Amino acid sequence: MKPIYLYNTMTRSVEEFHPIKEGEVSMYTCGPTVYNYAHIGNLRTFMFEDILKKAFKRDGYKVTHVMNITDVGHLVGDGDDGEDKMSVEAKKEKKTVWDIAKFYTEAFLKDEEKLNIEKADFIPRATDHIKEIIALIETLEKKGYTYTANGNVYYSIDKFPNYGCLARLDKQSLNAGERVEVDKAKKNPHDFVLWFTNSKFENQAMKWDSPFGVGYPGWHIECSAMSMKYLGDHFDIHCGGIDAIPVHHTNEIAQSEAATGKKWVNYWMHGEFLLSEKGKMSKSSGEFLTLTTLENHGIHPLSYRYFVLGCHYRKQLQFSYDALKGAESALKKLKSNIKRIKESAEGKAPNMDEIQSYNDDFDKALYNDLNTPICLAILHNIIKDDKVTDASKLEFIKNADKVLSLSLLEDEKTEEVEIPEDIKALADERLKAKANKDYALSDSLRDKILSLGYRMIDKKDGYAIEKV
Ligand SMILES: [Zn+2]
Known about the structure:
The protein is of the alpha/beta class.
């Protein structure tokens, strides 16, 4: 095994990775809150975690990966304010929260598949782990870390001296009190709810009996409970988006380490934001692009993966359709070169000596805190190298693509699809609606076409149609 170096948010430095158990990696990644589609900024984080996992596998590690599904308790605000995200969406869509959870969980897993993200080994749902969550809260209660106020069970951050170590929060300013006090029952404004019984959400559909009263868990406790159930109370890596550092991950550490009395996670890793034209992409900021949005623009999901891999995961990435289209044409060109290599290499054996230095360079970049832009550059370089035979190139590409997962060896679908007349008529109607600026009609026609199994792609002068 070669050494792997990773940036640990806890120490703010790149460190050599040492596993708890020889040859094995245990990793937990915070999963989606399934009240809506994941936006492409979220998906960027899941792709970074996918690369991390595949880097370990390339190096010969056995990886155990757990990703949770948050289907209860995540409020609109991270600090226990606002309504439950699931309930809000259920009301809006006139469905039950259970239906919403099921629908968006499936949608998320489908997005992962389209992006060639490998499924986690365990994908536990919070609502299936209420027993473990209650047990953990009881442990915290016994050890004196909780208090009950206004019917809710709170975690008292003043009882945990290390609170805020991950985010390097200043204790002084934490205690000084916030200007906006959202919950008067809290002793410290940064205390957080472990279990809601009395709350403003009277119509909460998901409720369970507990020693603290009928109610439901806060958001943070599920990750502590489920990670420890599947990975034990001390594991290697915990990942998430950079926005999880100040509240979510900070609270996870406080809960877990208070309960066990020891260190919980060795390495903390966080992916940076994707910036939309209006700033950070989020569900509340208005700029909300999903993978389906990109597909409706005629962009293949793997073009988005290629675009994301062109930037280091710890750098902010500016999204624009122009940049994405640039990535798409670069990937197409790369794949057509690979197709030629594949044809010419047929039946010939690779010479491993020819690609040794390329493989070493690829490892060096990948194991240096997942430097995917350099990995892509190495891939482009070997393709251009006249001294390497096509059979050897192919061997390199095969292995590189196990990590990059761009389906580099799969041929593009080129077969022409016959478009039925009624679909063409609907598409013409939509084009007219768009010209008349009747966007509601235009959107409903696009959805209708999609429900019939075709996708309409807007072009500068007209449209194209493809089979879904
Ligand atoms: Zn989490």
